[in-house]
Amino acid sequence: MSAIEPLTLNWRSLASTKPSVPRRRSGARWIAVGVAALALLAAAFYWRSSVRSFVLDPIADQNILLVTIDTLRADALSSYGGPARTPNLDRLAAGGARFTFAHAQTVLTLPSHASILTGRYPYEHGIRDNNGYRLRADEPTLATRLKSLGFATGAFISAFVLDQRYGLQRGFDVYDDRVSEVGRVMAVEVPERRADVTVGAAVNWIGQQKDKWFGWVHVFDPHAPYAPPAEWLTRYATDTYAGEVAWTDAALAPLLNLLAAQPRPTLVIVTADHGESLGEHGEMTHGVFAYEAALRG
Question: Which SS3 state, helix, strand or coil, does residue 192 take?
Fold first, then answer.
């Protein structure tokens, strides 16, 4: 397995990395960062002295949208040659920077998102699993940093594993983690809400903002079990994981389209917390092995 770049890379070294597609200026002046660019995301917003100028200057009058797609391996997207038709994410990638060799820091949702939001490895921020851990109250995050810089902050979560009890809510004015409660019979699946419902809540919040904002939208649909809505289930009857990815792309369309109508430009970052093994190395999903299928998005 290839070495993983540390999350605390100097921004100058990251800026020298050439995207795989040319940058183009779109109508909304978006900058799109490719799926699974975890290392770039954490380093770019890390507030040590080496990157402080990046945080304070180029985005001073821009909104910031972070979209994390749970359990998404990049080679499922059509922009990476995958089987899922993903025109909305493809358009975003074509108009910005698409990264082809980015890795998650872990194969589990909670510790991976903690790394995204803090810019630290799991052994540094202390969250090592999806249960039994909580982010320390004194740990700075992307949300606490941007809130201190005057951004309105809102998070819209699709799965119980990122419930505010785990500590990621600090710094957010709104932390919408309303997912289905576990009923009398314990379900095997993680309680979640569909991407379109989460996106709808985010769109409503963004529409109410009068000044610069930072929004985090987490969608969970590509996670097992793979059960996309009927239209996508019919289209992808032989590859329901690809169907979930295609459905997620469609559900994100209202959110991405909204940004084009806003007067203030938005920095758009799309990434994944980890991939999915899909049977490689004897693992059907993720959470056990740290092979490329589960780490490289």
Answer: strand
